[in-house]
C-alpha cells in the first residue's frame, strides 16, 4: 500500500477541505458491511449525502490518481469521556449511589420476573456498601450518572436502587441488647477518666461473600443504552476458565484486557480504610484496573459476560462469577 500512502500525503489537505469530510486514511474497501481485500483511500464523512443533492465540486471522486476510494459514514467524532453526563447512559460510564464517589455502570440486564431493563453494578457502587441494616442505603435511593465525584447532582438521577445482595464484613458493631447495655455502663465510667474514649462491642463473622452486586431501575425509558462503551453489545454468558482472555470497559482505565490467573479464589478484601470482608468463589485476572472501575462487566472474546469486577490491586483485578450474580439478583441478559 506504499503508493496509497504517497497519494494520500499529496491529496489529504485538499480532501479534508471538502464539505462533510472529517478524515482520510488508507484501508480496505467495504462493500455493504463486508470488508474486501481491495486497498483503497478511505474518506470519512460525518453523514453520507445522496449524489443528487451535491454540487459537482462537492462530490468525492471514485478514484484518486487511479486508486479507488471508499466513502465511510463515521458520524461525529468526539472524545470518549466516561465521566461526563451521557444520555443515553452507557455501560462503562460513571455512575453511583448519591452518597458515594463514583464507579462503573456495568451492564444492562433484565429482571427474570418482569422483563424490565435494569442497571447492574456493585453493591458498593449502587447501594453504598450496605449490609442491609446499617442505614447506608435503602430501596428507592437515587442513582446518579455521572457519579457524585464526577459532578453528578440530584438533577442527574437516572435510576433508583431496587435490589442488592448485602455485604458481610469481618467485624460489625454488635446489635445484641446485652452487649449494647454493657457498653453503655462501661462508657459512663470511662468518660470520668478518659472523656475522648469509648467502649464498643463488635461481632466477628465467619461468613463470606460470593458477590458484590446490586441493580437499579431507570426512572424513564430511553435513559440508558445497552452497548458497552468501545466494546459493543453483550452477546450472552459464559463461564470463566483458567487462562481465559478477558477484558472490561471501566470508568477510570477504559478498555483493558488480560488473562484469568486463578479461579475458586478466597481472599480478604478491604472495603474501606477500617473495614474488610472475606470473599469466596472469586476469579483473579491480570487485567489493569483502578478505583472507579468497580462495577465493570468482564467479557470474553465473543463479548459474552464472564464476571463483575469489584476489587483489584496494583497488578490484578478480582471479579464475581457472572452466574452467581445473575442467580442471586434474579436477572438475566
Structural summary, described in words:
The protein has helices spanning 2-16, 123-126, 177-193, 322-329, and strands at residues 21-31, 34-45, 63-64, 67-73, 94-97, 103-104, 107-111, 117-121, 142-144, 157-164, 171-173, 202-204, 214-218, 236-237, 245-250, 254-272, 275-285, 297-299, 304-312, 317-321, 331-332. It is mainly beta. Strands 6-5-9-10-13-8-7-21 form an 8-stranded antiparallel β-sheet. Strands 15-16-17-20-19-18 form a 6-stranded antiparallel β-barrel. It has a 4-stranded mixed β-sheet with strand order 1-2-4-3. The radius of gyration is 26 Å and the shape is elongated. Among the domains are: 2-73, GMP Synthetase, Chain A, domain 3 (2-Layer Sandwich); 171-204, no CATH class; 236-324, Trypsin-like serine proteases (Thrombin, subunit H), CATH 2.40.10.
Condensed summary:
By secondary structure, the protein is mostly beta strands. It has 4 helices and 21 strands. Helices cover 13% and strands 38% of the residues.
Topology:
Blueprint: H1 2-16, E1 21-31, E2 34-45, E3 63-64, E4 67-73, E5 94-97, E6 103-104, E7 107-111, E8 117-121, H2 123-126, E9 142-144, E10 157-164, E11 171-173, H3 177-193, E12 202-204, E13 214-218, E14 236-237, E15 245-250, E16 254-272, E17 275-285, E18 297-299, E19 304-312, E20 317-321, H4 322-329, E21 331-332
Parallel strand pairs: 2-4, 14-19
Antiparallel strand pairs: 1-2, 3-4, 5-6, 5-9, 7-8, 7-21, 8-13, 9-10, 10-13, 11-12, 15-16, 15-18, 16-17, 17-20, 18-19, 19-20
Amino acid at each position: 500500500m506504499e503508493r496509497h500512502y504517497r497519494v494520500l500525503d499529496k491529496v489529504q489537505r485538499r480532501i479534508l477541505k471538502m464539505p462533510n469530510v472529517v478524515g482520510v486514511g488508507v484501508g480496505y474497501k467495504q462493500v455493504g458491511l463486508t470488508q474486501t481485500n481491495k486497498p483503497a483511500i478511505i474518506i470519512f464523512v460525518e453523514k453520507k449525502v445522496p449524489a443528487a443533492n451535491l454540487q459537482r465540486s462537492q462530490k468525492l471522486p471514485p478514484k484518486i490518481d487511479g486508486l479507488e476510494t471508499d466513502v465511510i459514514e463515521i458520524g461525529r467524532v468526539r472524545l470518549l469521556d466516561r465521566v461526563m453526563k451521557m444520555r443515553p447512559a452507557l455501560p462503562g460510564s460513571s455512575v453511583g449511589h448519591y452518597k458515594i464517589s463514583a464507579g462503573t455502570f456495568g451492564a444492562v440486564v433484565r429482571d427474570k420476573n418482569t422483563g424490565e431493563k435494569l442497571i447492574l453494578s456493585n453493591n458498593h457502587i449502587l447501594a453504598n456498601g450496605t449490609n442491609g441494616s446499617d442505614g447506608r442505603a435503602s430501596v428507592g435511593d437515587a442513582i446518579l450518572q455521572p457519579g457524585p465525584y464526577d459532578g453528578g447532582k440530584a438533577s442527574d438521577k437516572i435510576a433508583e436502587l431496587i435490589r442488592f445482595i448485602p455485604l458481610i464484613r469481618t467485624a460489625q458493631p454488635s446489635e445484641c441488647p446485652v452487649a449494647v447495655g454493657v457498653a453503655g455502663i462501661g462508657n459512663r465510667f470511662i468518660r470520668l477518666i478518659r472523656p475522648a474514649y469509648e467502649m464498643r462491642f463488635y461481632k466477628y463473622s465467619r461468613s463470606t461473600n460470593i458477590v458484590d452486586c446490586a441493580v437499579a431501575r431507570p426512572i424513564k425509558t430511553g435513559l440508558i443504552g445497552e452497548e458497552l462503551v468501545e466494546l459493543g453489545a453483550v452477546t450472552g454468558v459464559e463461564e470463566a476458565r483458567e487462562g481465559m482472555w478477558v477484558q472490561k470497559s471501566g470508568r477510570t482505565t477504559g478498555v483493558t484486557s488480560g488473562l484469568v490467573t486463578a479461579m475458586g479464589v478466597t481472599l480478604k478484601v478491604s472495603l474501606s480504610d477500617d473495614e474488610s470482608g472475606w470473599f469466596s468463589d472469586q476469579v483473579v485476572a491480570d487485567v489493569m484496573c483502578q478505583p472507579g472501575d468497580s462495577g465493570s462487566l468482564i467479557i470474553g472474546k465473543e463479548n459474552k459476560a464472564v464476571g463483575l469486577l469489584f476489587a483489584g490491586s496494583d497488578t490484578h483485578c478480582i471479579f464475581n462469577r457472572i452466574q452467581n450474580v445473575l442467580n442471586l439478583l434474579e436477572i438475566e441478559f
